[in-house]
Write a structure and sequence with these properties.
Distance between the termini: 21 Å
Number of helices: 10
Oligomer: single chain
Helix content: 55-70%
Radius of gyration: 27 Å
Structural class: alpha+beta
Largest sheet: 6 strands, antiparallel
Number of strands: 6
Shape: elongated
């Protein structure tokens, strides 16, 4: 059964990869013609973008592979012969379901290990090489707790990673009652491990009643703002949770730097990124009863059309429940797993009917 799956799976993998590649080639052409990107940079961007499409291609190829392989076996009465020999339907299709589960684990590993690295490289090529923008000019606002309660909010205009220098920095420090303690302003702050040295800093200290108390300057003020340049540079590129691994999303959720709206979005994506890879198993399961039905012509084209229809319905449901998951709370976990549970229930019901036939 597994060897029978190999050919149709390879066909589906190649076909769906070609479809996604074709759409990317059009985008690459626009980069070269409209934004005058160097051809080598456009090709490099294209190659780094490919790994993320594997997360969609592998489940779709699994679906088409099971449909076509079982369709051929059913059409040539081999399924009927095995059932007549006393082999149950579940035993017949069990190897395909095991392969579907293994494919899900492979997708999960790719999502967590390979795709985030590829997305980081693609973002760098797009911003720094093609658009000629610094990737470290945004998301440089962060907050850390201070001893005795309160917090320290740091805002910077940009980060120069080559000199490890923050430009146009403002630090606002609050006490545990959320009252101003002091404000520090400096044009430059250079990282001198393990903390930061602020050049010609101006310090505004406030009284407990909120009035301005004293103003002073310090040519080399050292302040711990909670992050090293490498951590800032990495975080500055992590604005889209879809391009991050679950570990990176979890780190952002634990940082306390996200707004309530962002936190809901990140939490929904965090749960969804665990559920989505198991689409390979779900697709294998729901493809079994469809593939075992006697085919009346159409062959590969019919299987391909059915696969596209199932994929379309599945991802429409995923999108709908994803929007619900962004409401926050337990809705994120429930909405992430509902499409898989729904399609699994349908697949088991259809498989039971096929077993009884």
């Amino acid at each position: 059964m597994v060897s029978e799956l190999g050919g149709p799976f390879s066909f589906g993998f190649s076909a769906f990869t070609l479809i996604f590649t074709a759409t990317q080639l059009i985008a690459i052409g626009k980069l070269v013609s409209d934004e005058h990107a160097p051809l080598w940079a456009a090709i490099q961007f294209f190659l780094w973008e490919l790994p993320q499409y594997l997360l969609l291609v592998i489940p779709m190829a699994m679906l088409l592979g099971v449909l076509l392989s079982l369709g051929r076996l059913s059409g040539e009465s081999e399924i009927t012969a095995m059932k007549a020999g006393g082999i149950s339907v579940l035993r017949i299709v069990a190897p395909l379901l095991v392969v579907g589960f293994i494919a899900s684990l492979i997708v999960l590993v790719l999502q967590e290990e390979l795709v985030p690295i590829a997305n980081d490289q693609a973002a760098y090529v797009r911003e720094a090489v093609i658009k000629k923008l610094s990737p470290f000019t945004s998301n440089l606002n962060f907050n850390i707790p201070v001893a005795g309660g309160g917090s320290r909010l740091t805002r910077a205009a940009s980060l120069d990673p080559t000199t490890q220098t923050l430009l146009h920095v403002t630090i606002i420090e609050y006490d545990k009652e959320n009252r101003f303690v002091q404000i520090i302003k400096s044009d430059k702050a250079k990282y001198v491990a393990p903390t930061w040295s602020f050049a010609d800093a101006t310090i505004y200290r406030f009284n407990p009643d909120g009035s301005l108390g004293a103003i002073s300057t310090d040519p080399r003020l050292r302040v711990d703002i909670g992050e090293a340049p490498s951590e800032m540079a990495k975080r500055a590129t992590l604005s889209n949770p879809e391009e991050m691994s679950r570990a990176q999303i979890k780190q952002q959720l634990d940082s306390g730097q996200l707004s309530p709206l962002q936190e809901n979005q990140f939490r929904e994506t965090y749960e969804a990124k665990l559920a989505r890879p198991f689409a390979s198993f779900v697709f294998a399961l729901i493809a079994v009863p469809f593939g075992m039905r006697p085919a009346r012509g159409g062959g590969t084209s019919l299987g391909f059309g059915l696969a596209v229809a199932i994929v379309f319905v599945y991802y429409v449901i995923v999108t709908i429940f994803g929007s619900i998951g962004e409401l926050g709370g337990p809705a994120a976990f429930i909405s992430a797993w509902t499409p898989n549970l729904l399609f699994t229930a349908i697949g088991l019901w259809l498989l039971r009917r096929a077993s009884a036939a």
